[in-house]
């Protein structure tokens, strides 16, 4: 390990906040084990209890109609495509009931940026879910919420307040990709800008909706852009305190317009996770991305800064369309956690322990 990296890690371990250049130096280094060890120490300081959490949840993609044509997405369809859909309530209800029957706590509800559905449709949907099922609705990523404001010609805060009042419980961190205009202009030019993504989260936190934060790396961005992304999340968390967790995952290129980009491997994932843990000193919970990395690297991530295995993902439709399908039933998640000497504990969205 070179001296510069050692000094930066000592700084992080002394609870001094890392700066842009510190993080960039770490990204350019190859000292994976040193990074992992430092991240694990920080993880243990924040979570000395000896347990690792997970949640029983389900992804429900209520529509795949989308007008934005992101180059990294294999999920979206246009209105005239034969497999374009908007999910009927009967099917949605079946999925929610199956989730509850399996001990599920939460549905992650996201869809494409539908050109026709208005705010009232979403309010009616949320009220119907809440009237019929006792489940946490973690719904509508910032690009969707930004789109709702634009298509309804309404202020973002009003959109968020009305959805909250109709039954929305929290906001997922999807659609962040990399929060720089260079990366977004290349891979998703029609989607909300980095500033707009952050503003959705700011306004959501203001009206009392907690959210998760994410980063999808390994496509067109530079290391400096990864650091800028982390910096913008940290700044917003300083301002609002509204992020409950951070999740990073590598771009999955199969079946997308960016198929020519070689996928980032496990080394890059563990490095990015560890640096994120060291840099994001104001976000307590870090989720393992076993859905894209597989169970073994998912397990290893618990020694590289992650304190949570994320969701059981009873269903997942977006990453799987890009050719990556990893599933873990509850028993396997618990065994994966136990093998490392942690006690598995089931949680809710707010990281309250349930068992």
Computed CA radius of gyration, to the nearest angstrom: 19 Å
Strand content: 5-15%
Give helix and strand order, one letter per element, not per position: HHHEEHEHEHHHHEHEHEHHEHHE
CATH architecture group name: Alpha-Beta Barrel
Task: Provide a descriptive summary of the structure in words.
This protein is of the alpha/beta class and 355 residues long. It has one domain (31-346): TIM Barrel. It contains 15 helices and nine strands. The protein has helices at residues 3-13, 20-28, 32-46, 89-101, 119-132, 142-152, 156-166, 181-187, 194-206, 223-240, 266-279, 290-293, 295-300, 318-321, 330-338, and strands at 51-55, 57-61, 106-110, 136-139, 211-217, 243-250, 285-286, 308-311, 343-346. The chain has a three-stranded parallel sheet with strand order 8-1-9, covered by helices on one side. It has a three-stranded parallel sheet with strand order 2-3-4, covered by helices on one side. Helix 3 crosses helix 11 (266-279) and helix 7 packs across helix 9. The termini are far apart. Residues 316-324 have low confidence and may be disordered.
